Model the fold of this input.
Amino acid sequence: MKNRGFSLIEILVSVAIFSVVMVTAAGALLTTIDANHKAQAIQSVMNNLNFALESMSRAIRMSDTYHCGNLGTLSEPRDCDLGDSFLAFNRNSDNKTVYYYLSGTQIFREVDGEALAISSPEITVTNLKFYVKGAGVSGDTQPRVTIVVQGYAGATEKIRTPFNLQTTISQRMPK
Done:
């Protein structure tokens, strides 16, 4: 009985097949990792922006004397049909003036001269617009504020995820 092993050709073919399978598996693994990073970026955006928009909505809903744009004074309610990146209003709970605006790539809330970023630094906000209707109207018309937020999340170009959010808020208690 002769002891026969594998020939050189058989070993080379098996190594080549194994290499192709491993390269394909590694590519699939890297794609899955990138998809996971992108999903985490989207989740971060949704969690942070949901919190920021909900906070803004609550404050705007329970307020009055809306002023869109940084021109004029808050004592002069001002509609904003074309949109502006600055909104001021009088908070009913403590009669303080609240400002929301975009500074750099973050959304800020300012009360009594103290500004606080309400959006995460992981999120890049490229556009923030407030549209106000009915700010100076008296009677049964409730003022409406529409907020549009655009930007992206993700540190690298490969996992960058754009977003475009919009919400409309009406004043809870008419004037």
Notes: The helical segments are 8-61. The first strand starts at residue 63 and ends at 68. The chain has one helix and nine strands. Strands lie at 63-68, 80-84, 86-91, 96-103, 106-111, 114-117, 123-133, 144-153, 161-170.
